[in-house]
């Protein structure tokens, strides 16, 4: 009887590799739980080193204190740090980095990378990025790769900007990005991905609701005969809404860069990186 049961389970596991996971029953789990293990594999085409260099270039626009030769020991907070790829690179650039993320599973992966690298930094903290408070002020903060788009309301955005402002020293800089509607309109209709990582099979597919301005990505992961589904919702905001809220928090905008260039962003941009400064005197 046991041999028959094992054979049946093995058969179901094979079937998940042949059929779409979206045609099968799944258990709903919170975002970035099961997918944390395969996140870096799914995002393997992302050039984090180039992204880090781009962020450092943008920071130079905020003032002389962020020249490459002057970064050593400056305190930086990455909000929504995920599995720590960017935090580790910013630490290598000289910053004293604290990475903050609300997903325990993603941070477990990040801490594993830190251990393998044999370094004591970055410090990784499990916390909601809209309310994280540090005992020491930072000279810089970074929040990229759609992390801000996960905030579901203008109230949450307002809390985020106010909180970061409070955590920065006067003259401190915030670099954050936001995915705009052009990105969702161009990608959501066709985006599908299927892959395998070790013994795990996964599928991703997206849709965009243009009336509600919500970009939804469904991630299904199969381990043997067990299938889990995560629902990732990103909320699309206009440049005007973002500017109004960070201005209310007290930030001064230095630049809004379009699509990984040094060209000024507009509503037709797919992604914008803002460079904001907390004034030296409030």
Task: Please summarize what this structure is.
The chain has 282 residues and is an alpha/beta fold.
Q: Which labels suit this protein?
A:
globular; alpha/beta; 2 domains; 282 residues; Rossmann fold; seven-stranded mixed beta sheet; 8 helices; 31% helix; single chain
Number of strands: 12
Please give the domain count: 2
Provide mean pLDDT, rounded: 90
**Order of strands, widest sheet:** 4-3-2-5-6-12-11
Elements, N to C (H/E): HEHHEHEHEEHEHEEEEHEE
What is the class of the largest domain in the CATH system? Alpha Beta
At CATH's second level, what is the architecture of the largest domain? 3-Layer(aba) Sandwich
Explain what the structure shows.
By secondary structure, the protein is of the alpha/beta class. The protein folds into two domains: 2-30 and 183-235, no CATH class; 46-180 and 237-277, Vaccinia Virus protein VP39 (Rossmann fold). The chain is built from eight helices and twelve strands. It has helices at 2-18, 39-42, 48-60, 85-92, 104-117, 154-167, 181-187, 239-249; strands spanning 27-28, 75-79, 96-101, 123-126, 138-143, 168-179, 192-197, 200-209, 214-223, 226-235, 252-258, 271-277. Strands 4-3-2-5-6-12-11 form a seven-stranded mixed beta sheet, with helices on both faces. Strands 1-10-9-8-7 form a five-stranded mixed beta sheet. It starts with a helix and ends in a 5-residue tail after the last strand.
């Amino acid at each position: 009887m046991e041999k028959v049961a094992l054979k049946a389970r093995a058969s179901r596991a094979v079937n998940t590799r042949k059929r779409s996971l979206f045609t099968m029953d799944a258990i709903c789990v919170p975002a970035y739980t099961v997918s944390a293990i395969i996140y870096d594999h799914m995002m393997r085409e992302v050039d984090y080193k180039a992204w880090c260099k781009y962020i450092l270039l943008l920071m130079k626009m905020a003032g002389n204190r962020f020249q490459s030769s002057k970064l050593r020991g400056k305190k930086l907070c990455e909000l929504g740090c995920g599995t720590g790829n960017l935090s580790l690179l910013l630490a290598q650039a000289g910053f004293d980095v604290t990475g903050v993320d609300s997903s325990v599973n993603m941070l477990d992966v990040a801490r594993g990378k830190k251990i393998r690298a044999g370094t004591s930094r970055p410090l990784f903290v499990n916390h909601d990025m809209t309310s994280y408070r540090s005992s020491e002020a930072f000279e810089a903060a970074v929040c990229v790769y759609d992390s801000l788009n996960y905030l579901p309301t203008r109230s949450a955005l307002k809390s985020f900007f106010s909180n970061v402002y409070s955590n920065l020293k006067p003259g401190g800089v915030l670099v954050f990005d936001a995915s705009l509607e052009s990105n969702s309109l161009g990608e959501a209709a066709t985006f599908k991905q299927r892959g395998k990582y070790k013994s795990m099979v996964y599928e991703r597919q997206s849709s965009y609701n243009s009336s509600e301005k919500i970009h939804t990505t469904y991630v299904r992961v199969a381990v043997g005969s067990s299938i889990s589904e995560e629902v990732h919702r990103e909320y699309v905001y206009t440049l005007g809404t973002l500017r109004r809220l960070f201005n209310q928090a007290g930030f001064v905008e230095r630049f809004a860069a379009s699509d990984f260039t040094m060209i000024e962003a507009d509503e037709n941009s797919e992604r914008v990186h803002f460079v904001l400064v907390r004034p030296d005197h409030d």
